[in-house]
């Protein structure tokens, strides 16, 4: 039986080996025949090149495997492999020929594939992998088809008019590109693609009669650049996904509250009385865009992206309680032609420009923090009727005058006070500048309060850079009088410069930093359950977790003393001769001397004295003796 099994196993093994050998011989024979056929026929297919090639009307037949170059019989160019450090991998410079490039690989330092002036739908790129600084593109190449390709680029390419871009995978490999692809003009089809960005955008500029469907964007979003409402509404946007969630595309909407954090990006246009609240939008080119709307509210929306929020042509816009974190340092809030605006309680960090406002009217900017901008903290141009209070703006300065915390240009009717402006890097640089400004007031004359400027020496008034004679009559240092300067509070300790007690624990920020060395941002610095003020007041250590200790040996730990409001260093808080721990155990009030335990032993002595004939005196004496005792609690009383 065993021999029979071995024979069968040997037979099967030999048969498998024979099959594999035949397969290898067939493949080898096919390869040799293919090479011989290519040599014999002198065809330019399966071309491998380490230099860029140029294909034009004169030589296109030598690169093609079939076709006549007509509309219905285009040249077929396939199986090219061009990997070069030249600027262009493959350049098509055609005037009359129609062609299809397919099943090829092309790489160049600038373009993998470049098309020069090829319009009328004469170019089709199918099933190709293309790499380069810009991968695929070309000037005035209209009505081209790009299908089922993989495109890898350092930055996005531009296409216009009649682009048919379907079932492609596009990846940005460089972190500084603002766009994956830019599509403009009419008759474009962008469908069923997958985009991988680096907080980059699929940029749509003035497109009309176009279809944008079923696209998946990862670490990227759409950017809508439009001027006319009719253009926007003449396109189809369906089933697009941004970072795993649907694109929130809202147009012609009225009287709605849109919440739930269900969208990956939000674009709202031509709408009225819409409230957006409670969104986290991450790793994106721009979190929200609002165009041609009235009465829009944005609240509790957090964005991590290249840009934060953008608005164009909006009347009535409120933005509150938002956190914006910049990637690659573009603009936090970018507004143009926006009127009747309130911007309040915004925390913004990591942007080149914090707020960039142009052509605005009736603007209120309150209680915002712009931390460490690298170009301008707030830049306001061609705007009027502006009020700014309780804002903190800092900008990193490399060269004085080049990076500014606040810039006003060609504005009128501006009032600002209770603001803090800080230059980082060059600490002596002026943080604020104004030019061509009419009726700007840098203080409140009634309150006699101006602003803080990091380069002010603390003496006299403060003269503003720019317009001659512009002055802040009431500049300040340490407006909340907690002994910490605004610079220390904002840059070193991150405390609230307008509130002397940032953590509301009853200790001023200066006391916590300089006297008690506690955390001014926590009411319980050592996280032991007892707040700093209580520990400081009653002598426990606010910087060491001593909640389980019992320094007065009354049977209560420090945390228990805190909870019962008894004294941690006094074992009898109410002075009734009973330890605090005894009173808690007996259920009496350790803070009230009239409330004390009724202990059985004194009364038992009294009863025994009377019963034994010792008389009232002996019984009462026993009671008084025991009643007045003081000392350590019984070992039966464990700590709670």
Which key terms come to mind for this protein?
elongated, alpha/beta, about 650 residues, 10 helices, 8-stranded parallel sheet, disordered C terminus, Pectate Lyase C-like, 29-stranded mixed sheet
Would you mind describing this structure in some detail?
- The protein is an alpha/beta fold and about 650 residues long.
- Among the domains are: about 200 residues, Pectate Lyase C-like (3 Solenoid); about 55 residues, no CATH class; about 70 residues, no CATH class.
- About 15% of the residues lie in helices and about 40% in strands.
- The strands form four sheets. It has a 29-stranded mixed beta sheet that branches.
- The C terminus is likely disordered.
Summarize the structure.
Helix content is 17%, strand content 41%. It has 640 residues and is α/β, with parallel strands linked by helices.
Oligomer: single chain
> Number of helix segments?
10
Q: Into which percent range does the helicity of residues fall?
A: 10-25%
| CATH fold call of the domain at 283-477 | Pectate Lyase C-like
Portion in strands: 35-45%
Tell me, briefly, the overall form. elongated
CATH class of the domain at 283-477: Mainly Beta
Biggest sheet, open or closed, and with what strands and sense?
29 strands, mixed
Topology:
Elements: H1 2-41, E1 48-49, E2 53-56, H2 60-63, E3 75-78, E4 81-83, E5 88-93, E6 99-102, E7 105-107, E8 111-115, E9 123-126, E10 129-132, E11 135-137, E12 145-147, E13 150-153, E14 157-160, E15 164-166, E16 169-172, E17 179-186, E18 189-191, E19 194-208, E20 211-213, E21 216-225, H3 229-233, E22 236-238, E23 241-242, E24 245-251, E25 254-259, E26 265-269, E27 272-326, E28 331-349, E29 353-358, E30 361-366, E31 369-373, E32 376-381, E33 384-389, E34 392-397, E35 404-409, E36 412-417, E37 420-425, E38 432-435, E39 438-441, E40 452-453, E41 462-463, E42 465-466, E43 471-472, H4 486-493, H5 509-516, H6 532-538, H7 558-564, H8 580-586, H9 600-611, H10 615-627
Parallel strand pairs: 1-4, 2-5, 3-6, 4-7, 5-8, 6-9, 7-10, 8-11, 9-12, 10-13, 12-15, 13-16, 14-17, 15-18, 16-19, 17-19, 18-20, 19-21, 20-22, 21-23, 24-26, 25-27, 26-27, 27-28, 28-29, 28-30, 28-31, 29-32, 30-33, 31-34, 32-35, 33-36, 34-37, 35-38, 36-39, 37-40, 38-42
Antiparallel strand pairs: 23-24, 41-43
Helix pairs in contact: 9-10
């Amino acid at each position: 039986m065993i021999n029979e099994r071995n024979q069968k196993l040997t037979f099967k093994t030999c048969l498998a080996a024979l099959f594999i050998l035949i397969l290898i011989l067939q493949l080898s024979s096919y390869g040799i025949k293919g090479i011989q056929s290519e040599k014999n026929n002198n065809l330019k297919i399966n071309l491998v090149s380490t230099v860029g090639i140029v294909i034009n009307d004169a030589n296109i037949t030598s690169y093609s495997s079939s076709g006549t170059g007509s509309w219905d019989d285009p040249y077929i160019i396939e199986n090219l492999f061009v990997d070069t450090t030249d600027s262009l991998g493959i350049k098509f410079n055609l005037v009359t020929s129609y062609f299809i490039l397919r099943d090829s690989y092309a790489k160049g330092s600038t373009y993998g594939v470049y098309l020069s002036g090829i319009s009328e739908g004469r170019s089709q790129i199918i099933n190709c992998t293309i790499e380069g600084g810009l991968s695929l593109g070309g000037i005035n190449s209209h009505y081209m088809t790009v299908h089922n390709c993989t495109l890898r680029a350092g930055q996005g390419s531009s296409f216009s008019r009649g682009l048919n871009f379907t079932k492609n995978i596009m990846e940005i490999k460089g972190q500084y590109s603002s766009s994956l692809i830019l599509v403009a003009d009419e008759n474009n089809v962008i469908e069923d693609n997958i985009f991988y960005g680096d907080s980059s955008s699929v940029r749509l500029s003035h497109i009309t009669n176009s279809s944008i469907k079923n696209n998946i964007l990862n670490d990227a979003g759409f950017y809508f650049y439009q001027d006319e409402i009719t253009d926007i509404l003449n396109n189809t946007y369906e089933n697009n996904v941004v970072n795993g969630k649907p694109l929130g595309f809202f147009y012609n909407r009225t009287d709605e509250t849109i919440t739930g954090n269900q969208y990956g990006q939000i674009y709202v246009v031509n709408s009225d009385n819409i409230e957006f609240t409670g969104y986290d939008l991450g790793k994106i080119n721009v979190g929200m865009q609002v165009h041609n709307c009235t009465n829009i509210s944005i609240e509790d929306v957090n964005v991590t992206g290249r840009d934060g929020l953008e608005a164009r042509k909006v009347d009535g816009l409120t933005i509150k309680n938002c956190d914006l974190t910049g990637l690659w340092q573009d603009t936090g809030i970018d507004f143009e032609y926006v009127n009747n605006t309130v911007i309040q309680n915004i925390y913004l960090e990591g942007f080149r420009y914090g707020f960039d406002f142009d052509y605005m009217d009736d603007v209120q900017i309150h209680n915002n923090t712009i931390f460490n901008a690298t170009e301008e903290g707030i830049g306001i141009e061609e705007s009027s009727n502006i009020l700014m209070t309780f804002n903190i703006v800092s900008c990193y300065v490399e060269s004085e005058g080049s990076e500014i915390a606040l810039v006003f240009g060609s504005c009128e009717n501006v009032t600002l006070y209770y603001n803090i402006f800080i230059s980082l890097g060059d600490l002596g640089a002026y943080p604020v500048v104004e030019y061509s400004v009419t009726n700007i007031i840098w203080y409140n004359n009634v309150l006699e309060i101006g602003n803080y400027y990091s380069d002010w020496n603390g003496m006299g008034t403060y003269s503003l850079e720019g317009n001659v004679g512009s002055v802040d009559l009431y500049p300040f240092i340490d407006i909340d009088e907690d002994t910490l300067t605004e610079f220390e509070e904002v840059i070193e300790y991150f405390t609230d410069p307008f509130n002397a007690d940032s953590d509301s624990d009853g200790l001023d920020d200066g006391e916590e930093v300089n006297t008690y060395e506690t955390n001014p941002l926590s009411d319980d610095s050592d996280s032991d359950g007892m707040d700093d003020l209580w520990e400081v007041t009653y002598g426990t250590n606010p910087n060491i977790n001593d909640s389980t200790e019992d320094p007065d040996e009354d049977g209560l730990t420090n945390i228990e003393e805190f909870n019962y409001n008894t004294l941690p260093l006094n074992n009898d808080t109410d002075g009734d001769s009973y330890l605090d721990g005894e009173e808690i155990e007996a259920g009496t009030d350790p803070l009230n001397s009239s409330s004390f335990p009724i202990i059985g032993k004194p009364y038992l002595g009294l009863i025994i004295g009377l019963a034994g004939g010792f008389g009232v005196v002996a019984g009462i004496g026993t009671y008084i003796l025991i009643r007045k005792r003081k000392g350590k609690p019984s070992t039966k009383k464990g700590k709670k």
